[in-house]
Amino acid sequence: MSDQSFTTTFSVDQTPKEAFDAINNVRGWWSEEIDGGTDKLGDEFTYRYEDVHHCKIRVTEVIPDQKVSWLVVDNYFDFTEDKTEWRGTTIGFEISERAGKTEIHFTHLGLIPEYECFDICSNSWGFYINGSLRSLITTGEGQPNGRGRPRLPAEELDHQVSANEASTLT
Q1: Span 6-63, pLDDT tens digits
Q2: Cα–Cα distances in angstroms (integers) from residue 25 to residues 4, 133, 165, in the given order
Q3: Residues sharing a CB contact under 8 Å with residue 3, sequence separation 6 or more, in sequence order
Q4: 161-167: long-range contacts (C-beta < 8 A, 24 or more apart)?
Q5: Which of 108, 103, 118 minimizes the C-alpha distance to 163?
Q6: 11: CB partners within 8 A, 6+ apart
Q7: Residue 33: which residues within 8 A CB-CB, separation 6 or more?
Q8: Backbone phi, then psi, for 46, in 5-degree steps?
Q9: Total-model pTM
Q10: Distance between CA 166 and CA 160 in Å, rounded?
Q11: Dihedral angle at the C-alpha atoms of 71, 24, 67, 48, nearest 10 degrees?
C-alpha cells in the first residue's frame, strides 16, 4: 500500500535561511497562542484552538536551512470519534534550492484519507502552509490564529486554497 499522507509544496524567491526562520516562527504562521519553544531540537510546544483542538508537539529534527521535523506527542479533537487521531504522527518541512528558488515541501506523515479529520485537517494545513507560512516568508506577515483572528472555517478555506494548489497525495 502506498503512503497517502498529506503533502504540499511551494516555492519562493527568498533564501533557504529565510524559509527556515519562518518555519520555526510557528507563532507567526500557525497560532499566536503557542506555548513553549519551537526552534531547538527537543523543544516541546502546545497548540490550542479553543476547545476544538489541542496538541503537544516535540521538535525531533533541526537541520539549519534544510529540514525541521516534529512529533505529535499528544492530540485532542472535539470533532472526531477518535479524539487522538494525530498522536504519533510526524510533521516535516524540507527546504531545498531548485531552479533559483527556495522550495518548501511539507508532509504530515500519518495524516491519511482514512482519518476522520483528513478533509478538514488537510484543508487547514493547505491554508496555513500555502497561505500563512508562504506569506510570512515572502512578506514578513503570516495569518496565524490569534486573539481576534480565529481559524477560518473549512468552507472559506476551500475558496482560498484550491485543492489543486494546496495538496497532493503521495
Answers
A1: 999 999 999 999 999 999 999 999 999 899 999 999 999 999 988 899 999 999 999 9
A2: 28, 9, 23
A3: 109, 112, 170
A4: 161/123, 161/126, 161/127, 161/130, 161/131, 163/126, 165/126, 165/130, 166/8, 166/122, 166/123, 166/126, 166/127, 166/129, 166/130, 167/6, 167/7, 167/8, 167/122, 167/125, 167/126
A5: 118
A6: 98, 101, 102, 103, 104
A7: 27, 47, 48, 49, 145, 146, 147
A8: -115, 145
A9: 0.85
A10: 10
A11: 20
Domains of the chain, earliest start first = 6-169 (3.30.530.20)
Give dist(CA 135, CA 152) in Å, integer.
16
Number of Cβ within 10 Å of residue 47's Cβ equals: 20
